[in-house]
Amino acid sequence: MRIAVLNGSPKGDVSVTMQYVHYIQKKFPQHELKILNISQKIKVIKKNEKPFQQIIDEVKSSDGVLWAFPLYFLLVHSNYKRFIELIWENGTESAFKNKYTAALSTSIHFYDHTAHNYINAICDDLNMEYVGSFSADMYDLLKEKEREKLILFAEHFFGAIEKKLPTSKNFHPVIHSEFDYVPSDVKTKVDIGNRKIVILTDSEDDQTNLGKMIKRFSRSFSDEVEVINLHNVDIKGGCLGCIQCGYDNNCSYGDKDGYVEFFNTKVKTADVIVIAGTIRDRYLSSKWKMFFDRSFFNTHTPTMMGKQIGFVISGPLSQIPNVRQILEAYFEVNQGSVVDFITDECEDSAEMDVLLQNLAERLIQYGHEGYMKPVTFLAVGGTKIFRDDIYGRFRFPFRADHKLYRKHGFYDFPQKDYKSRLRNSIMMLLNKIPSMRKDIYTGRMKTEMIKPLQNILETK
Ligand SMILES: Cc1cc2nc3c(=O)[nH]c(=O)nc-3n(C[C@H](O)[C@H](O)[C@H](O)COP(=O)(O)O)c2cc1C
After folding, report:
1. CA pair distance 24, 31, nearest whole angstrom
2. How far apart are CA 416 and CA 190, in angstroms?
3. Which CATH code of 3.40.50.300, 3.40.50.360, 3.90.76.10, 3.20.20.70 fits the domain covering 2-163?
4. Which of 5, 179, 230, 319 has the greatest number of beta carbons closer than 10 A?
């Protein structure tokens, strides 16, 4: 069998993910895994019809397609995302139709599920036969048990193709609306005081719903707010994945483009950031993805501390909860406070005016009050992954992260919680006495659990 492997790593052949593909190839020499470097070659692929067509021809003539990609900011790399957009832009969806497919990723398991949801949904949109996914930690290949799993995954994939096994769709098609937003004049302006508000967008046309939402929204404020279009920021390309930034947060692009300066002077200095974009396939645009990927020069250090974050989105956001989760997670993990998402899905211009006005008011009010929304699992879970990996296996090369984590007390390991450790030791001992154990679990557990909270109620 011949499998087209769509390589999502910007590092091309020198890719961790491709070692997993090579391993499958080694174990299944009877099949040919044809690796196509998508992310690394995107500049050639998008400018030139021939290289793009060659990839599509490979897909067409293959027995199956393997999406093999590294995780990049809770999704795939921006260049891979661009390739996916090109499939529809060039009207080549039919090449993928009814092809058996599977997804293989490497990562540190930080939001690998959202990337796999995305690729699975794209496969469903392309009417492919999606067999399943395999999400490996980047060094799983070193472990025998994990290698065995990988072999079985490949076996299942090849078997599904050979036997033409049935597959199910996991994601419903997205329905786009024709609704045309007609904004009304702003009646009351929100006083922004000394707060700096930045609206970031990739809007290319003022007359789209997004363009009109941005205009209406920015007029809600008493003073001019800065609207920055990502198309006007000098971004020469996507993240190279080189990790040079690990040492001291210096991006290898250096001053070859304007991204780092833009991020440091416009994004980091803002009190309020509003992300304004349109749903494109199952995410925002690849331009937006590039914005997020390139912010990696900050490595794993939070960049949104104390900032209020709003979203103005055109398109069916509520049909793609995965996008919302990705965006919320990015800002939560970076210690920003996500205030709300406003979309054009209500299909009512007057209601949208009210919602946009209300978002403007809350972004300022919460900032004045210093109200930062409590974090959810998105940040709690994600931050623990970073904490453990930076302390442990990735202290090198991420020296800059380690320095900051140590300085700011990010290494909040539970073994440092001496009070809990002491209490645990005493209680574990008492637990060994049957009568005490009975008394604790049947008589006192519930009341003891709320005791410290009741103390607060009485004293504060
Ligand atoms: C810019 C950048 C962003 C990343 N984002 C994520 C992420 O969101 N989640 C994750 O688990 N790993 C993330 N990683 C780790 C890579 O996915 C991981 O190292 C992968 O094995 C690299 O594969 P490759 O060598 O094939 O490119 C990121 C790495 C880089 C350089």
Report:
1. 10
2. 46
3. 3.40.50.360
4. 5
CA distances from 292 to 20, 51, 201, 284, 398 (A): 26, 27, 12, 11, 19
Strand pairing category for 197-201 and 100-107: unpaired
Q: Is 16 in the pocket of ligand 1 (CB under 6 A)?
A: yes
- Contact call for residues 123 and 151 (beta carbons, < 8 A): no
Contact criterion met (CB below 8 Å) for 281 and 86: no
Lookup result for tokens 């006192």: 444
Pocket test for ligand 1, best of 38, 78, 81, 107 (most atoms within 8 A of CB): 107
What are the tokens at 135? 């999400």
Distance CA 84, CA 78 (A): 10
| Distance (Å, whole) CA 251 – CA 242 | 9
Q: Would the CATH topology of 2-163 be identical to that of 197-377?
A: yes
Tokens of 156: 């299942």
- Residue 10 Cα: closest atom of ligand 1: 27
Closest CA to 364 of 230, 188, 228, 206: 188
pLDDT, tens only, 253-293? 999 999 999 999 999 999 999 999 999 999 999 999 999 99
Q: What residue ranges do the domains of the chain occupy?
A: 2-163, 197-377, 417-459
CA of 241 to the centre of ligand 1 (A): 8
Strand partners, 3: 33, 64
Distance between CA 306 and CA 271 in Å, rounded? 7
Domain 197-377, architecture per CATH: 3-Layer(aba) Sandwich (3.40)
Model confidence pLDDT, tens digit, residues 171-180: 999 999 999 9
**Ligand 1 centre from 264 Cα, in Å?**
23
Contact 202, 312 (CB under 8 A): no
Q: If we measure between CA atoms, which residue out of 177, 175, 172, 173 comes closest to residue 344?
A: 177
Q: Does the CB atom of residue 39 touch ligand 1 within 6 A?
A: no
- For residue 346, report the phi and psi dihedrals to the nearest 5 degrees: -70, -15
**100 φ, ψ (degrees, to nearest 5):** -70, 140
CB 7 within 8 A of CB 42: no
Tokens standing for residue 3: 């499998």
The pTM of the whole model exceeds 0.70: yes
Cβ of 70 closer than 6 Å to ligand 1, yes or no, is yes
Residue 18 alpha carbon, nearest atom of ligand 1: 26
Q: Does 112 score more than 80 pLDDT?
A: yes
Phi, psi at 341, each rounded to 5°: -115, 130
